[in-house]
Amino acid sequence: MSPRERVQALIAAAADVARPDTPLGVKARAAWVSTTGLSPEGIELAIEHCLETHPSEAEIEQLLASVQPAKRALVLLSANVFVGASRALALALASSEHVMVRVSRRDPVLARVLLEACPGLFELTDELAPKAEDVFWAYGKKETLRTVRAKLPAGVHFIGHGPGAGAALVELPEASPEVLIAQAKNLVLDTVLFEQRGCLSPRAFLVTGSKGAAEEFTQCVVSELTRMGGEVPRGELAREEEAELVRFRDTMAYVGRVMDTKAGLVAFSESTSLSSITPVGRAIHIQHLADPILPLARIGHVLTNIGFFGSDVTKAELLRALPHVRIAPLGQMQSPPFDGPVDRRPHL
Amino acid sequence: MRAFARGESQESFDSLALELARFQAENIPGFANLVERSGSALDSAATIPAVPSEAFRLTRVAVHPPELDVVRFETSGTSTEAKGVHPMRTTATYRALSTSFGREALMAEDAAVVVALAAEPGEPVPSSLMFMMRQFMEEFDPAFGRHMGLHVDAPYERWLLSSAGVNLVELQRACAFAAQMGRPLLVLATSLALARCLEQLQGRSFLLPEKSVVMHTGGPKKRGGELNLSELRTRAVEQLGLAAGQIVGEYGMTELSSQLYEGTVRGAHLSGPKGVFIPPRWLRVTPVDSITLEPVEPGGIGLARFMDLGNVDSAVCVLTQDLIRERDGGIELLGRSPGAVPRGCSMAVQALLEGAQ
Hints:
heterodimer; B: alpha+beta
């Protein structure tokens, strides 16, 4: 098969898994409930928005062009967001017809069902044995990546992708109620997907414009989060995650205002700089400030993307200040184009 | 409050704590919000909600306006975007409390020669630790500063750390002076500075005068790795010729006005086993569950919640991220709460904040 055919075969397999009525779709969903901690509705939401099943031809072209051909491609997967394996495999398949994959013990599901859907497309292994001229894709914590890289034999092309986070920036000079509601809905969607555990998930929320508009937007976010919580219940939180939310709640009660809904937390404060990063688990801290570019640039090296609603001028400024960061419309932070690695920061 | 600290007040700890909490709720809208959210009627000390220590980094924690500040103590802020600030409109309480309990913990005799393995702070002193070190020099060392209106120069430098390291020559001079005066040497240090001092000695002994005390403070984090505090203390005892118990851990933080010490200095008023940090009578430390914020079962591990009567104008109750366990009238320090282990490919909050540096 050609690189394009391999990638297309993978996409077809993903489409099979994405359907709730196929045997593999049923099997994967049952497994994901226990491996992800997400609610069944949360899993469905992520499949709908984030599992790449219908990329455009142009996107596939870009993805193919984003990799170098290699004799063998080795992939070390982490317990990433549960759909993440799909793009990781596509990149490897784009670069080589011999793809060997070691899955994470915590979340092996997607790679396994994709292989079941398309036997022989790649190989699952417990042990990766890289040798010269291989390309080695690794996903995980920075420390893990450093350790893996240090042990590689000479001549292996290593591409490491570490953890990251997203931010949201909303410009509200004069926004109509309809716009506020629509953007609040988008922001909440980005937040609810994967319960903010993804490397594309928003963890900083900046709003510019008048204070009145920012407060109105915050109220819209509260309403949308409450509504979404009814449709997509929050998944299980680890004890430590819950503790961080409690701490965040009390800190924000002191620092600004906090609205505690059953579906999650929304806080509002006025800031002169980026003052707070939220914990995971549906925590949104709207920080109203005048100039968002510098604060975002200061955390630029951990940012993978920015969900943005605003003017072209500001977007151009963001692109200049943060050349490695994807800029996506709000509501599409977790579904970037299928055009290469989601994370465009320099490889580790 | 100072009368309470001196043992001259009839008021109870709880009634003073409540009085402070009500005063702070009246004057700090953020604390009033926290009280309201917690559902507390501020009718018992146990219901006073704790202010998370992050609040000191994110906003002003004070009953008074900035123009009345006489000091703004800052956290070291090495790993977060913004430094935490504890503003004070008077240092009288801080001075009285730190000196009083420092004397109980560190001084077996009336006087000592006091030096600090720290750089001389400028004015205003930006750190509560530096402020306290200078205070100890003034209060415990008769050779300090002014006497009878005249400036008296001690025959040794007091601030012994610079970018070049610890000034061992001046440390030697201080030792000689202490020996000549028949006084112990009190060395005040961060754990990192003490480690630096020992590194400079390269295994050689540097014997301090008899009955000398080394007070060290600060966690195990250092640039490029972790400091093994137990190993550091063993080396300090050996290389500096200290008697067992004469190296004393201090626990303090910018957000508090009070400190805790190990009570191991022979002949000092404070007494307790090694590894147990004892609070003064105006400070109550409780391990609490990180989710319910209720006290844990006896002997259990929890986050340290401090009720500090010294925090008159800021936050009488502070919740830190340090894990502790109650023991023998004090607490054991068990490190910082690790926070949520990232699942998926997200980043931990702390790692993100470090990224914001």
